[in-house]
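stage 2 :: seqdesign
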């Protein structure tokens, strides 16, 4: 039954059927063909999948991202990033990465980061004679850090699927996201020095002006990270506080959100929240039928028989997820695969937080890996280039990302140091 279930899902994906319909329909079909269980159970399991306290934070984080985007956040963040790194070789290219780290900490969305930063910076990079392949690859990969830096929607979904602490995942994701971003900055700087890309003169007055102008916007990640890290808020409470703060800043400080824009962003946020929730519901039902069909037990038996060390287990996991990430959206892969492999990982002594960060990192790379990486399609709309034109530039960033991935995988203290410090 398990193989038939998975085959149904992949057939529907290749037919272009929406993922949530494919998951629910495959579940109901397998119930009708292989069991005498009422198909209504699939719907009950779907509702049960979203009836979780941790998921209360999702709509708030999504609304926060919408409020800060409509409130002119990306423009202010980009200006601050340019003032911070523009005086280095390849300063404009480094600005893309720094701005994406800031913006990812506010939106939690990889495609949103690519779209917001790319629309502004891609024409600027071309004007400064950066190669199209390098510029497009830089912008497309830059959004991946949003899956790691809090408030990552992907980490929340992993937490929901595996009953892992959201706060611990956020702290681990923060450390790994910063390491990933710094590695990309180092690579961009190296390439810029070698290729002679331009830099700007540092203007201390402009820097101070950019800091003052963006200080209110930067308060959002501070509210989330410091509030959770210092134990002032739970992750769910931090989501609500950040929403109130973001709306206050957008309406009364920057004054770029009026009542009409407020109504529009509420509608957009509600639609986005509904899309995420129905995906979680469908994946929960799908995961349940996998369990009924002994899928987790078969996978656990295979892993236990073939992988007797955490080193080999993590190597297999990385290879498998890098391949799956080319075809599956990150949140789906985490929701479906996370609960299946968690028992075997824990049995080998792998920390659930470390496992979640490694999985999320793999799937972050998948967002800009051909042929179906989501950020690639967003990048196409921004750059107007075909996948064939963008692929050479993407490959160099993929190679650097994989090197960082293996460092994070086999040096677990990178992802567990801060969670252990705060929650031990």
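stage 2 :: out
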């Amino acid at each position: 039954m398990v193989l038939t279930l998975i085959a149904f899902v992949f057939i529907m994906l290749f037919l272009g059927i929406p993922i949530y319909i494919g998951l629910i329909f495959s579940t109901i079909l397998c119930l009708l063909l292989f069991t005498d269980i009422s198909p209504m159970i699939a719907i009950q399991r779907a509702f049960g999948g979203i009836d979780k306290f941790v998921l209360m934070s999702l709509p708030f984080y999504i609304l926060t991202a919408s409020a800060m985007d409509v409130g002119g956040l990306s423009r202010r963040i980009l200006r601050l990033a340019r003032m911070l790194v523009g005086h280095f070789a390849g300063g404009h290219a480094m600005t893309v990465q720094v701005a994406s780290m800031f913006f990812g900490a506010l939106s939690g969305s990889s495609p949103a980061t690519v779209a917001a930063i790319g629309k502004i910076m891609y024409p600027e990079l071309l004007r400064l004679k950066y190669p199209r392949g390098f510029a497009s690859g830089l912008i497309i990969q830059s959004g991946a850090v949003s899956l790691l830096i809090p408030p990552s929607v992907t980490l929340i979904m992993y937490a929901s699927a595996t009953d892992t602490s959201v706060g611990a995942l956020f702290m681990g994701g923060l450390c790994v996201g910063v390491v990933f971003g710094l590695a990309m900055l180092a690579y961009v700087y190296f390439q810029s020095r070698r290729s002679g890309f331009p830099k700007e003169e540092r203007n201390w007055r402009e820097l101070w002006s950019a800091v003052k102008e963006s200080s209110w916007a930067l308060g959002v990640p501070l509210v989330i990270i410091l509030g959770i890290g210092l134990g002032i808020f739970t992750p769910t409470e931090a989501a609500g506080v950040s929403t109130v703060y973001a709306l206050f800043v957008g309406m009364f400080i920057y004054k770029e959100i009026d009542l009409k824009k407020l109504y529009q962003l509420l509608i957009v946020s509600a639609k986005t929240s509904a899309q995420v929730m129905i995906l979680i519901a469908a994946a929960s039902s799908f995961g349940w039928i996998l369990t009924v069909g002994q899928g987790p037990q078969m996978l656990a038996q295979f892993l236990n028989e073939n992988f007797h060390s955490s080193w080999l287990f993590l190597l297999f996991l990385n290879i498998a997820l890098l391949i799956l990430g080319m075809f599956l959206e990150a949140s789906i892969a985490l929701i479906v695969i996370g609960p299946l492999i968690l028992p075997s990982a824990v049995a080998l002594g792998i920390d659930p937080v470390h496992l979640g960060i490694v999985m999320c990192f793999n799937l972050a790379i998948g967002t800009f890996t051909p042929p179906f990486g989501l950020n690639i399609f967003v990048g196409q709309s921004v750059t107007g280039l075909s996948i064939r034109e963008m692929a050479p530039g993407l490959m160099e960033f993929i190679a650097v990302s994989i090197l960082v991935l293996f460092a994070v995988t086999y040096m677990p203290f990178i992802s567990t140091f801060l969670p252990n410090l705060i929650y031990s």
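stage 3 :: structure notes
- The CA atoms of residues 24 and 46 lie 8 Å apart.
- The two ends are 42 Å apart (CA to CA).
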